Structures are given as C-alpha cells and as structure tokens.
Amino acid sequence: MKINALTGIFLLAGTLTGFLTSCGGDDDKPTVDRGDVVMTEKFPAGLTYVCPQGVTAKAYIADNTTYTAYMYQNFTADLTLAGGVDAKLTLIPYKNTTNGVVVADGDNIIASGDYTRFKDVDFEYGPVSPLLLSQPDDNGMIVHCSLTADDNTEIYFIPRQVVCCGNTVVSSASSDSFTNSSTTYLITLKSAEKATVTVRNARFAQNMPAVGDMVFDDVDVISFDDDGYYLSCASLVPSIMGVPYPSFAITDFSAYIDIDGYDEEDSMISFGCNALGRSYKVKATSLSYYTALIE
Description:
Strand content: over 45%
Number of helices: 1
Structural class: mainly beta
Helix content: under 10%
Order of helices and strands: HEEEEEEEEEEEEEEEEEEEEEEE
Number of strands: 23
Shape: elongated
Distance between the termini: 83 Å
Largest sheet: 11 strands, antiparallel
C-alpha cells in the first residue's frame, strides 16, 4: 500500500489512540477487592468545626452533621459526612487495636461531595475501658475525627456530651487545700452557644460530705478553635436534684475542652463557690475525657 502524507497522519493518530487506550487511565485501574463491610459505626450526636482553607476568621460550626464509618475486610474504611458538610471519603487505611478501638489514619484520600481529596484523615472509634468510666451507665466511647482537605480546610468532630476526669483541687483561705479524684464533670453542648455542666460528686472539703450532682445550666460557649472549645459564666445559681441552691452560688466559671488532644489531658475547669458562708476556689486541670452517650 502506498502511504502518502495524509494516510500517514491517520495511521499515526490510530497508533497513538491504541497506545493510550492500552495504557489506560484511572477508569481502567483494577477494582480493589475490599471484601464485605465488617462493621458500620454511626458517630454519636455532635457538632462540626469547619475552618475553610485553614483561615480561622472564616471558621464556623455545622450543627447537624452526621458521621458514619464503614470498615471493610481488607482493612480500608469509608467515612460519610452528611448535613452541614457533605462528603464521602473512601479507602482509608484502618486497624483494630487490642482494646476494641478502630484507628484510621490516611493521607491523600479520595473523596466525593463537597471535597474531592483529603491530604490528612484521622479518626478513632471504640469503647472506653470500664475502669475509666465515671459512672457505669455513661456508655463511654472514644470518638475522635479530624480531617484536612486538599485546600487546607480543617474539619473536626465535636461530641455533644463528654465526661472530664482527673484531680480537682479545692482551696480556701480558712482551710488547707483538698484534692479529690471522685469529682467529675459531664458537659453537654445544648447548642453552639450554650452548655450544661454537671459537677458529679461535688465535694469542697475533706470533712464535707458530697452534695451529689450540681448542675450549672446555660453556661456560655465562648468560642471554638481547631483544638476545642471554651466555656464561661460570670455567675450562676446551681441546682441539685432540680432545686436551685443560692447558698452554693458559683462565680467566674471557665473551662477549656481540648477535643484535638482528648488523650493528652489538656482540658481544664475552674470556678469559685460560696458554699454555706465559705468561699472556695475549685480548679481541675490536666483532665482527660471520653465521649458520653447519655439519654
């Protein structure tokens, strides 16, 4: 066959087309056999801190996002966010730890929805050791999730209920300081603006009997950042078993809950209490916390 210039061009184009087809693209990659879904976990109720492009001034709270994780047999997971933030992240490597907690950690994760790729993905989900529970019916969980999209948008899951545990130090001008580890703090975010703090087994002196659970209602949520959130209230009247107790007036309440470092004991709570004619300063630092699932 005689090949002129025009025929040669068509032959070359056909050859290149065949070559490119044989090389394939993303659609031609073999499908990974992931096996069956072995576990599906829906995160408890919470909020979502979103910081677009990593710019703090643009940060906002999405109040209705749901998180669902799907773990496959080949130790990859999918994570779906819906409402407020909508995205599906796929093929996130995960492992099962000896204490029953799923730990997922991946880089350059493909997604669909509001974002197409995440350069950093980290989430954990599983039970808290019964030895760490403040109360047996807390249904305590380890729930943590932080995501960074390719455009540097940061996304953090904020559980609606947490229990903070650690040492509480109570000081007074009229007595020696008193330290106890039986007092714990249940924090419930009612919204992005208000919280309820329950001081469990409140006790302010060595010879003072525990007064039970003291409830601080309508505490202000001051701000959120990429680590956690701040609470504050200048003064309030606590309640015990639904009854207000002005004789235990609370002043200068402040708290910081470190969501990003939940296992690093960076959370703190402090307040003043005028209990039965005496002034006490209550301070709990280096607190650890777990997510609580309390009806």
